[in-house]
Amino acid sequence: MRPSNVISDWPLGEGAVAAALREHDWEQTPLGAPEGWPERLRLAVETILDDPLPQWVAWGPELAQVANGAARDLTGHAAPGRPLREAWAALWPEAGPAVERVMRTGRAEVVADLSLVPLRDGAGAVRGLRATGLGGVTGRDGARYRSIFTSMDEGCAVIEMIADEAGRWSDFRYLEVNPAFTVHSGVSDPVGLTLTQLLGTPSPRWAQIYGKVAETGEALRFQEPELVLGRVFDLNVFRLGGPGSRQVAVLFSDITARRRSEAALREGQERLEAIFASAPVGLSEVGLDGRFLEVNSELCRILGRGREEVLGLTIGDVTHPDDMAPSLAAVNRALRTGAGADLDKRYRRPDGTLVWANSRITPLRPAAGRPASLLVATVDLTARRAAEAALRESEARFRQFGDAAGDVLWIRNARTLAFEYVSPAFEELYGLPVSEVEGVGSVRPWAALIEPQDRPGVLENLRRVREGEHVLHTFRVRRSDGALRWVRDTSFPLLDEAGQVQRLGGIYHDATEEVDLQERLRVLVAELQHRSRNLVAVVRSVAERTLTSSASLEEFRARFRARLDALGRVNGLLSRLEEGERITFDQLLRTELSALGVLDGEGGGQIRLMGPVGVPLRSATVQTFALALHELATNALKHGALSDPAGRLAVDWRLVAAPGGERRLQVEWRETGAPFVPSDPPRMGYGRELIERALPYQLRAQTRYELDANGLRCSISLPVSTGPELAFSDGEG
């Protein structure tokens, strides 16, 4: 059974030796479990496994050995981890002293056809050695050596050193090479030629290095480039034979591609380290135990701590207690799914302040596939949360302002024209709930309330605002209850950072009363002009009638003054409209007729008034209604029933109940007995226009004006003020 403490995926490879090493119980050897081995020991073992030459790696005080397949074939299947002395029992008398010298001096040696090269730890101390069999290790014939020599993957060459006249090593000649030589060097058929003959101007270091090995007998392991070939080589060099021999063996591999990969890897690593260090977000590598393994300067700034201090802490040391549970849940979610997980959390600084940040957690997986640590990207949310809080406060103030405003504040999407915000005053103005237009995604529900005659202009003005104009315009809307309201709209574009129209804003103002006031003022101005002319005519008529019926100048003066006073009284009634007084219909009627002097003796039996007393009129209707009565009375005096002694005027009024419970005053004005000459076609004088157009528009009155040869008949029905119960029975007023 495989021991539970082995690393199941080391060493990599499908060979029998690699499989045996994976299954071996290393805890029972001086080397211990492989996960505790130094990286250099593991790398050395991986290097020899597939080598066709017999090779051993020995490590530690007891030189516990690991052999490759070729070495096992030569020396037998010594258990991995056994001391080299035991594995080489037959060779130890001859090789043992050389092994001890290599361990003591750190210099490579060749003994008994074995190349012994020291292995050092990260601090440079000799901790073991690598042994390579060069042939005849067990006394077998040269055929086996030749087979290994020709089939090995590494390039191999036997060379003879050449010295110049001064005795300096200047060149060397190739005596023998294996097939892999050409693969690794790119040079064909070198045997018998010197390096200079092959390359022309090779690096002089080759002759210097190889000559030193021939002189000293000390094996070398090094890496060296050759610019002529454009390649970099990893080389093992050792002397063949004893002192004075000029023959050197060279084992080498072309590591150009590996060096390029390593350079690219280093460049990429340096680039990643630069990104990690200078990233504008906090970056950290965190172990599965929660400890910080690496941090950048931005994270240190967020945490308010120095790098060395943070590397001595865990996530729990810097996280607000209330946020630990969500943090652990996010870590577990990231480990379970293999995808990133994020959360907003609070970090604690040494001074007690809290920093809100968003942390994105991503598992980091080594080649084995199991997460070994976590990458945490942390973004400081302080500025964003402050901006969000300011935005919320601004929006709250805006909504408070909108809620309290009497006018309607609105914002539209520039593309769809749909309302994004509408203040509550919309419901009072339009008679439609805000929910039926806000966020609906269409302009139709709102546009349907606009009077058809005004709708095209309103939509055209929206288009103008969308193109960047400021627009002020007025239009009419028909509320859901049927009421007509005038709306004055101030619209303007709202731009984004690029200066493009992103939204439309505006203010709807209920201008109904203002429009009504303007209309009333227009009527009053027109009436003032007309009434001034009529007043002169009335005064003249009163004067003439008074003069005709007066026996003396004194009598004329008294009666004329009284009639002027009556005329002043009706104007006085009109002047009290703004004082909050209620004027009754019979009062208004009598005042108008008295002002014309037709209710005293001169009226005689020409006038009959019949209706309830004290019917109060709405303050807003008195002025216009009085103008209508004045026109009827004036025309009767000038042209109608009161202009001829035979004429008769009958005014009847009563209260009637209209649909919906509304009370209305019904007035019937009837003139007969005088010679009436209707115009053909009927002429629309000021009085008639006032009755037939102004009263319906301003007072919601219903009117009828008929003039023929038999006389004038005028009917007026208008709403009146509610008040104490009034008798509906007729009675003389």
From TrEMBL:
Span of domain PAS: 268-338, 394-469
A Pfam family this chain is assigned to: HWE_HK
Keywords: ATP-binding, Chromophore, Flavoprotein, FMN, Kinase, Nucleotide-binding, Phosphoprotein, Photoreceptor protein, Receptor, Repeat, Sensory transduction, Transferase, Virulence
Enzyme class: transferase
Domain PAC: 341-393, 471-523
Catalysis performed (reactions): ATP + protein L-histidine = ADP + protein N-phospho-L-histidine
PROSITE patterns, sorted: PAC, PAS
GO molecular function term, any single one: photoreceptor activity
SUPFAM superfamilies hit by this protein: PYP-like sensor domain (PAS domain)
EC number: 2.7.13.3
Keyword Transit peptide on entry: no
Protein's recorded name: histidine kinase
